[in-house]
Amino acid sequence: MKNLKFKGQNIPNMPWEDRPEGIKSPVWRYSQNPIIKRNPIDKISRIFNSAVIYDEGRYYGIFRAENHSTLPKLHFGISPDGLNWQIESVPLELIDEAGRKNNLYYGYDPRLAKVEDKFYITFCTDFYGPTIGLIETADFKTFVRRENVYIPFNRNGVLFPRRINGNYQILSRPSDNGHTPFGDIFLSESPDLTYWGRHRHVMERGGTGWWQGLKIGAGPNPIETDIGWLLLYHGVTNTCNGYVYSMGGAVLDINQPSKVLYRSKYYLLTPELDYEVAGFVANVVFPCSALLHQDGRMTIYYGAADTYTALAFSRIDLILDFIIENSERVGSDHEIGK
Ligand code: BMA
Asked: SS3 letters for 214-261?
């Protein structure tokens, strides 16, 4: 793809490896995966499905860490290079909007976005069942818990990195209280991050690939290009041995992101290597963050088998070409507002 315009960052030491000879896939794995292994810090057994951001020379991470109670909590970490992480051994301390202490019973599958001058963590939390929580921070020192975005049940809340048509925008996947055997991606918007509405359907499970036949959920925060928003997501299939989580890709309209322009019928990454096919939950590839360099290189952080944190690489032009070439027409034309 020539003359593609996109919003990349200047990240001098972004984790990176060129595509190995002989590999044709638009996404390839880091040869030293996983970057976070089992029992990475005292009393924490597994860190996976975690979010990373690069801002003004520093890497910050919000990690899904499970201690020996197996309850997931959000932990803060920093890194000099995006590979070696210093992760706090205790969960994030939060205050509510009135300044009172407010700590989470559980928090998992965080995403991390910078919108204007603040960072926002969206994640799954408990509110009489799982739903989407929201934390705001300006400095990664004070973390303010905002109102939950939804009533239960909902998962995979993922913010866009800027307002669109004046409003904040969030993707989500309404769910149930268990291991949800269904699920499409929806969009909601808000003028103030408190009141959410104008809900739209974005993408349905299925399409023409069984790998995404059961449910789908947004992955990393969408990436802006002049073709549209690149959305990486997870797609799940139900087999006789349980669920299998792969990564897929789609492109959403820049001004009306409930409109899907392209969606690949093929997965971009599926569990193949030992650290993806075996672990606490077998066969899970779960992308939560992507860094995009201004030269087009992409580094994707994904959870592997609910046990490890791993990296994969791509290039923005390569991934978009693949999605467009292998795109299929899905979704309906009779939605309100489409
Ligand atoms: C989902 C979430 C993810 C997890 C996946 C596979 O419902 O809980 O955090 O990776 O199941 O276990």
From this structure: CEEEECCCCEEECCCEEEEEEEEEEECCEEEEEEEEEEECCCCCCCEE
